[in-house]
Structures are given as structure tokens and as C-alpha cells.
Amino acid sequence: MHAQITTVTIRKATSEDVEAMCVLSDQINAQHHAHAPHIFVKHNQRELDRLFWQASFQAAHTCALLACQDEKVIGFITVSWHENMTIPFLYCRRICRIGTIVVSDQHQQKGVGRMLMDAATAWGRAHQAVEVRLEVFDFNQNAMSFYRAQGYGVQSHIMSKALD
User: Fold this and answer.
1) CA dist list (Å): 112 to 10, 33, 69, 76, 102
2) Residues of the chain with pLDDT under 50
3) What is the CB neighbour count within 10 angstroms for residue 23?
4) Calpha distance 124→55 (Å, rounded)
């Protein structure tokens, strides 16, 4: 007997997907809280999480893309585009910004993240973006390696200092 072959599909999120997005965000939030508990709360209130993720795909300049296997959400990525219209010394360019990307623990290292990144890039192109940007915390070396493998490089550094 052969194992059933399943495929991963990418689609836009809808309101019915918010709970699945919350579950996946719990996974990435736990990782971030473990490494930066002074920044990331241990657990949010679920209703606030739902509202946050719902907003990630409601506006015309935002989108949440889901990776699904057998109709089960196994990952997602949020994207938005922004244009500089106020800072006179920066060019007015449309930038696609990746907000969050997460793939369920059991589906990592199988190309799902790459599929989500490719879909986000295609979304940015379709919205006339000229560049894709993202922010990654310094502790997340696995993510940095993943992004470098996708062709991303450091453009700037965000530095911080706690105030006593």
C-alpha cells in the first residue's frame, strides 16, 4: 500500500481561517517569548489575537496567505505594502513588507516556508512593489539562515536600549 500523496496549496485567508492563524501564532509567539520575554507576552487573550489576525487581511493594502495541506492550515504569511509619501529625502517607492511567517513545527523543513515567501513576493509584484522587506530578531538564527537562502540581505539594523 502506498502512502497518500498530499499537496500544499497557497490561498488567501478568510474570516473562517482566523482561529487556525491564532493556533499557529501561539507557536511562534512561544518561541519569541522564550528568547525575548521582556518584549513578547507569554500568552495573549484569544479575542485580541483574533482581531489582530483578522485585520491582517481586511484592508486593500494587506493580505494573509495560507499554506494548506488537505484543507488544513499548516502555515501562513502576512504581507502589506507601503509607500513613502511624507519623507522628502526618501524616494517614493512601494515596499512590500512581510509581517509574520510561521509554519507548523511538524511541517518545517519541507519547503512550505519557501512557498509562502514566493507567494508573498508574487503578491508584492502584483501590487507594484519594488522591494520586499522584513524584520527578524537577532536571536532567530534559523530564520535568518532561511531568509538568506531566499536571497535576503541586511539593509539596516534596528537597535534598542532598555531604559531603567
Assistant:
1) 9, 24, 10, 9, 9
2) 1-5
3) 14
4) 18
Instruction: Indicate the burial class of 133 (C-beta count within 10 angstroms; 0-12, 13-18, 19 or more).
Output: middle
Strand order in the sheet with 94-103: 8-12, 62-69, 72-83, 94-103, 131-133
Predicted confidence at residue 90, as pLDDT, reads 87
Q: Is 137 exposed, middle or buried (0-12, 13-18, 19+ CB in 10 A)?
A: middle
- Tens of pLDDT, residue by residue over 97-110, are 999 999 999 999 99
- Judge whether 63 and 79 are in contact, CB under 8 Å: yes
Cα–Cα distance measured from residue 79 to residue 101, given in angstroms and rounded to the nearest whole number:
9
The model carries a pTM of 0.90
Residue type, 39: I
Residue 5 pLDDT: 47
Q: Which residues contact 23 (CB under 8 A, 6 or more apart)?
A: none
Q: Cell numbers of 143, please? A: 530564520
